């Protein structure tokens, strides 16, 4: 069933006039007709089932029925901080990280980033990435849509609120470090905020590593192999899910 996000709070039994964007996708593109149903998530992350009740050339209404809200979000609030990657990798990271449960994506201008975002194009890039995140959240049937931000350097990115911070460090993997990530994930509590830093293609500079450590970030390896900049965040989010969701008693 198709899922859409609403910008306002809704209530059981409400007659909702479809926003223009939802009307276009559901009615115009997918050819929904009276009686068809879709899922809607309101601004407070509550889930509703909506039946298309009236339909006109440029407007339509649905009747919303509150339904039980499933536990589909990660038990911790995860922010990934990624050095600016080359080409279209930012779009790939945003889309796949959203599917894996991230709550915030921050791209930062790393010391060794090859890619550069011109100041006059940052807002446009963020708007594009936000649209990708929102679409991926709908596709993944999530209850929350991630935010996407830009930071001028790692120090600024690390100002994002967090309880636990880790840095995926290539040298840790090369040295055979295997336990730090698991230790951090085992210790974190539901509801806490977890921030993870990933370098660009050129890696994380010594100065950036020192800055992160000064702020109590833990250096961790992501297994014995060296991962690409677009692969590492996805490995990390999968590990978070495995430890904090799939291995927990039901």
Short description:
With 250 residues, the chain is an alpha/beta fold. It folds into 2 domains: 3-66, Hypothetical PUA domain-like, domain 1 (Ribosomal Protein L25, Chain P, Beta Barrel), CATH 2.40.240.20; 77-246, Alpha/beta knot (3-Layer(aba) Sandwich).
For the record, what is the CATH homologous superfamily label of the largest domain? SPOUT methyltransferase, trefoil knot domain
List low-pLDDT spans: none
Structural class: alpha/beta
Gyration radius, in Å: 20 Å
Q: What's the main sheet like?
A: 6 strands, parallel
How many H/I helical runs? 8
Give the strand line-up of the largest sheet: 8-7-6-10-9-11
The topology string of helices and strands comes to EEHEEEEHEHEHEHHEHEH
CATH class of the largest domain: Alpha Beta
What does this structure look like?
By secondary structure, this protein is of the alpha/beta class. Strand 7 (104-108), helix 3 and strand 8 form a beta-alpha-beta unit. The model has no long low-confidence stretch (mean pLDDT 94). The radius of gyration is 20 Å and the shape is elongated. It has 8 helices and 11 strands. The protein folds into 2 domains: 3-66, Beta Barrel (Ribosomal Protein L25, Chain P); 77-246, Alpha/beta knot, CATH 3.40.1280.
Q: Any chance you could write out the topology, listing elements then pairs?
A:
Elements: E1 3-5, E2 15-17, H1 20-29, E3 37-41, E4 47-55, E5 60-66, E6 77-83, H2 89-99, E7 104-108, H3 122-139, E8 147-151, H4 154-157, E9 164-168, H5 170-174, H6 180-187, E10 193-198, H7 206-214, E11 218-220, H8 232-246
Parallel strand pairs: 1-3, 6-7, 6-10, 7-8, 9-10, 9-11
Antiparallel strand pairs: 2-5, 3-4, 4-5
Helix pairs in contact: 2-3
């Amino acid at each position: 069933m198709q899922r859409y996000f609403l910008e306002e709070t809704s209530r059981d039994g409400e007659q909702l006039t479809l926003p223009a964007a939802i009307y276009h996708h559901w009615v115009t593109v997918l050819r929904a007709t009276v009686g068809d149903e879709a899922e809607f998530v309101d601004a407070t992350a509550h889930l509703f089932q909506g039946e298309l009740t009236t339909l006109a050339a440029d407007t339509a209404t649905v009747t919303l029925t509150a339904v039980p809200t499933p536990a589909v979000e990660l038990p911790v609030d995860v922010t990934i901080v990624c050095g600016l990657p080359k080409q279209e990798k930012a779009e790939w990271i945003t889309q796949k990280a959203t599917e894996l449960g991230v709550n915030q994506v921050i791209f930062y201008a790393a010391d060794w980033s090859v890619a550069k975002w011109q100041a006059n194009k940052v807002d446009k890039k963020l708007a594009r990435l936000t649209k990708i995140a929102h679409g991926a959240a709908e596709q993944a049937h999530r209850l929350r849509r991630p935010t996407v931000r830009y930071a001028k350097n790692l120090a600024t990115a690390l100002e994002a609120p967090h309880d636990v911070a880790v840095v995926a460090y290539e040298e840790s993997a090369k040295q055979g470090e295997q336990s730090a990530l698991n230790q951090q994930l085992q210790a974190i509590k539901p509801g806490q905020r977890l921030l993870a830093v990933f370098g660009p293609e050129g890696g994380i500079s010594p100065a950036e590593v020192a800055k992160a450590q000064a702020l109590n970030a833990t250096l961790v390896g992501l297994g014995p192999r060296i991962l690409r900049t677009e692969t590492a965040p996805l490995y990390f989010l999968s590990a978070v899910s495995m430890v904090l969701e799939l291995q927990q008693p039901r």
